[in-house]
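[09:14] KT: can someone run the structure on this one? pasting the chain below
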Amino acid sequence: MDDTVREIIVIAKAVIAGETGLAEGSMKLGYLGFQHSNLDHDPDFLPFAAINSDIGHLPFGSVRENWTSEALVKADLELRQIEEHYRPTVIEGCKNLIRKFDKSGV
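[09:31] RB: done, structure tokens below
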């Protein structure tokens, strides 16, 4: 198993366990899916591309420092709404990735 596949499994499990946020995990899984398959249309990674397309305009990481507190409140509310909308799809997508890649049965 290569490092990318290991990282996909770790992140998918962390999202399911609530240790990693849906948005953060989806961004990482979308990137890793492209790295792993070199294809944007791998069906196992489509749930993450869907949420990523809806959160791309929101501030993450150090970018948040450049936003006003009022704008951050609005952005955070929008992010929570988007995450709730996609939660079932992303969780199922994570389970599918684990079934596909984690042959250890853990």
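[09:33] KT: thanks! The mean pLDDT is 91.
[09:34] RB: yep, looked fine to me
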